[in-house]
Specification:
alpha+beta; globular; 5-stranded antiparallel beta sheet
Length: 328
């Protein structure tokens, strides 16, 4: 197998899964009639096309930005498929012919606003608010204590947010597709047959998951920001104020993300090492919240997405596949 075969990742979407390889992005979505809509596009990361962006500690920032945009695009695609298919069913029940041309697709401007808004909300809740709360608790004088407090609040927010999502039925379905994504990738990495019966035997906890990445970022940030706050105090003679601390930490966020990405890559490659197993365990525990055991039909969807991403199917544009479960 080539390098591409072991360089796949993905994301759960609405009633589906997105898979990404070194050359393609493929999104498979289950529609109400039981069939699966699959959309596959050629896509090569700028980190592969431009040598500079593929360098260690640079590629992590590039990957984060690319996956943010790709993730929102695929979520929009899955939402649009669900809306169109629901409208078709409603039209058929009324004895009318559905006019798909009337459906307005998300344009690039709205997509850009969505990305900006999502990042702003994430920065406000998971970045600025922990700093503000730690300042209000009066621990800002000691750099290590302050950042340990901010890190603890940040992780608490992260876990609490994920637990909150499990209360909603739609998100429970997404977490099941998340589990299907992990199982399918694990099966492929181990050279197993891409059949639901085989894929179901693999674990749903994967060390290269984005959930683990977020946890690594939160933990590594404590060390980096403690050092930066100490350096600021040594240079200026005083601990940074809240806004100064926010500006300093935010400017170092690409460094934190870049190093965290390299740690995640390394942990994925050495996951069988006893020391690595201990290190990645917290991220795997967190996946007990963000993944659930998928059913046979959800595994089919994940397999279709992976096959599209790896170029194992001929179709490049949106097609409909009839799974075995829908035929039997």
């Amino acid at each position: 197998m080539g390098q591409e075969n072991f360089n796949v990742g993905g994301q759960a979407v609405i009633e589906g899964v997105m898979m990404r390889s070194a050359k393609r992005i493929s999104t498979a979505v289950r529609i109400p009639d039981g069939s699966v809509r699959v959309k596959t596009d050629d896509y090569i990361s700028i980190s592969q096309r431009k040598k500079l962006f593929g360098l260690p500690f640079v590629r992590g920032v590039v990957m984060f930005l690319e996956m943010t945009v790709i993730g929102i695009k695929t979520l929009n695609f899955s939402a649009e498929v669900s809306i169109v298919e629901t409208e078709k069913i409603e039209a058929a029940e009324k004895g009318k012919e559905y006019d798909e041309s009337k459906h307005k697709k998300t344009n690039n401007f709205i997509l850009a606003l969505t990305v900006v808004f999502s990042l702003a909300i994430g920065i406000g809740i998971f970045f600025f608010l922990p700093l503000a709360l730690s300042s209000w608790f009066g621990v800002e004088r000691d750099a290590l204590v302050f950042n340990l407090a901010a890190g603890a609040i940040r992780i608490t927010f992260l876990v609490g947010y994920m637990l909150l999502l499990t209360l909603f039925a739609d998100f429970k379905r997404i977490f099941e597709y998340h589990g299907a994504e992990h199982k399918t990738i694990f099966a492929y990495e181990n050279g197993a047959e891409l059949k639901p019966e085989t894929v179901s035997q693999f674990t749903r906890f994967h060390p290269r998951c984005g959930t683990s990445f977020l946890l690594i970022v939160a933990l590594f940030a404590v060390m980096v920001y403690s050092l930066s706050d100490t350096a600021f105090a040594v240079i200026t003679g005083a601990a940074p104020e809240l806004l100064q601390r926010f500006a300093l930490h935010f400017s170092l966020l690409p460094v934190v993300a870049a190093v965290s990405y390299e740690i995640l890559r390394f942990s994925g490659k050495t996951r069988n090492n006893p020391i690595t197993r201990v290190f990645i365990q917290p991220g795997l525990w967190l996946q007990r919240i963000t993944t659930s055991e998928p059913n046979h039909e959800q595994l089919e969807v994940a397999i279709f997405a992976l096959e599209g991403a790896l170029g194992l199917t001929e179709s490049k544009i949106s097609v409909t596949r009839i799974p075995e479960s829908a035929v039997n």
